[in-house]
Amino acid sequence: MTVDGPHDIVEQQRAYFQSGQTLDLAFRLQALRRLLEQIAAREADISRALHADLHKSAFEAYSTEIGFVLAEIRFTLRHLHRWVRPERVRTPLTHLGAKSLVIPQPYGVTLIIAPWNYPFQLAIAPLIGAIAAGNCAVIKPSEWAPRTAMVVQEIVSSVFPKEHVCVVQGAVEETQALLAEPFDYIFFTGSTAVGRVVMEAAAKHLTPVTLELGGKSPAIVHRDARLDLAAKRIAWGKFTNAGQTCIAPDYVYVHRAVRDAFLTSLQQAIVHLYGPRPLENPAYTRIVSEHHFHRLMAFIQPHQVFLGGQGRPDERVLEPTVLVDVTWEDPVMQEEIFGPILPVLVYEDLGEVMEALQSRPKPLALYLFTQDAEIERRVLERVPFGGGCVNDTLYHFASPHLPFGGVGHSGMGAYHGRASFDTFSHRKSVLKQTVRFDLPFRYPNQKDGLKWVKRFLR
Ligand code: NAD
What we know:
Number of strands: 18
Structural class: alpha/beta
Largest sheet: 7 strands, mixed
Helix content: 40-55%
Number of domains: 2
CATH superfamily of the largest domain: Aldehyde Dehydrogenase, Chain A, domain 1
Number of helices: 15
Mean pLDDT: 96
CATH class of the largest domain: Alpha Beta
Strand content: 15-25%
Shape: globular
Radius of gyration: 25 Å
Strand order of the largest sheet: 10-13-14-9-8-15-16
Bound molecules: nicotinamide-adenine-dinucleotide
């Protein structure tokens, strides 16, 4: 546990950054390699911590957290030498003789604030971008996943000097103390409400931010969808991590003509994925806290339960639950669910669905199930959302070629792969002028100067 206060930490990191050590490509690659090695070596510890905090199975721990992060580091190691190069861009004729460059520059001392739902991945994935771009970083993991937060700290302190990267543990008070410091960049993952707190604090220092927030992400199942696949992929996307996934389909809009067939396929898919008694399935994740368990149970109206609905408070485990005959007036539709409850709404006119979505806060993800290219074009063109899939759920998150992020209430900025490097870099534009000649037109004392300027700018 670090004993320095937030101010000392930032001062130490700023001095380290200003020494220039992090600018060297070999230094950054070496830091990433050491991080990769340590994570690979500590895989069992990370998995155990995720099990202790959230009851995550070894399969989920690896596929959604450890393996994801290792793949991101390997991708960055392969491409970083190209990303760091200054980019030559074109120069207009008016600037004859000059060259134009865009140089990616690290911001300096960055702050990464992580949530509890993927507590390893969401602390380390932004760090990869931060150090690849040549920054120092302070990580504030979530207090709601304390075992994982401790492993993150152990790994970070074994790989990096604390002047380069360090972990500060704590909850609201400690985070607010950090936010009072003049960081050069803040990368926050968490709720929309706390996103506002972070942005307000950042505004005091004019610190740029990336906000990775949440919201209600819809899945739309159109009448021509492959229902068996739609059901399986929605069930997997929803009930992975017991629905505690920022990009989980929050609810389903299904076309009336296929509602019953879809529900039958959904039931089969859930039983196939989690067994007939999911509460006894050791690979099924728990709800993070008592507060959230009771919040979720209150959404379950017995007359709406199509499947599931039972929970065990002592173990904080809640069955994959499907609710039917749900409307926008129901409590379950008033906030992000963030748990294993899937409300199903019915539509007849896709236009009305699109209008409803356009009038609500922009979601982090949208999943459209259709085989009709025209429907796909309409929805992708007209409905705003952070990112998503056609005929799948969650998978867009795991591609290093797709920048991941929200829009509006679901956030701002993006990361993963090259986008992480770009997020943590300022693009410094530089014009390098020739000294071999000096075009006279721009100077005010030139004869016919105005005529020449007008001709040139045309
Ligand atoms: P949260 O906003 O409560 O907490 C996130 C972080 O902020 C934690 O480290 C916490 O200690 C800190 N924090 C909490 N309250 C604070 C305050 N008042 N002032 C300063 N710091 C504070 O979020 P959570 O409950 O940990 O995570 C769930 C939320 O995160 C959901 O809304 C989910 O959609 C979102 N999320 C988004 C993404 C994404 O990539 N967009 C990923 C995961 C989770």
